[in-house]
Give the backbone structure.
Amino acid sequence: MPTTQRPSQPPAAESPAHQAPYPVDAVISLGREETSKLLRLMRSQQVLPPLCHPWGSGPAYRVLLALSLLDVPEGAMTDDLAQRVHVLSALSSVVVLTAGPVDSTELLRAGAANVLPRHTPPRELAGRLTAERRWLAASAPRREQGPHLLPRRMARPRQLSQQILQDVLLSSARPWCCHELCLLLGTAGAPVSRRALQARMGRLSERLTPYGLSVTSTVQWGRTVYTGIGG
């Protein structure tokens, strides 16, 4: 008796969870309105995530992975741009987009992986970002995050700002100056005050104390340097 073959089923559509990620993990903006326009312009190239984050955004720092884009639209240029690149490069490799003339050498020395003009045609910009991600994947291991170093019974802080501060101190491979943390945790317009940073550190220390841990720091010449979390 002849057998009938069942028609082959078309392959199931790939779920979003298994699709390749964007070459850029996060877009951080010093001028969100203009950056939103850039994201819409680049949408067809599929290299940038659909949302941008303002500087200092907790959700932004939680998604910083291999490659991030710091967008500096026209009118958003700041005198401390090199410092911003320096502190951000401690968490992620950073490509900087600038609207006007800028000292690229200064930003590269500050830690930028690349500095590109914002008016670069979308297709060319997409190609450069994809190539940057490919180079990073081949040349540098992914940064290890450190929350697993805390006792398992220790709950995560409820406030996002405290989670970010804790993770920054755990994951960083270098000490953090108080001025750097004030800049990192502030806004595009202004850093947080040293008093506010000290208050955040105090709250973090309070929840570490029952576990025999504390924020390690040194004070010299009126500057506090935070070296991590330890016993």
Observations:
- Strands lie at 26-29, 53-54, 67-72, 93-98, 114-117, 176-177, 214-220, 223-230.
- The CA atoms of residues 13 and 19 lie 10 Å apart.
- The chain has eight helices and eight strands.
- The two ends are 77 Å apart (CA to CA).
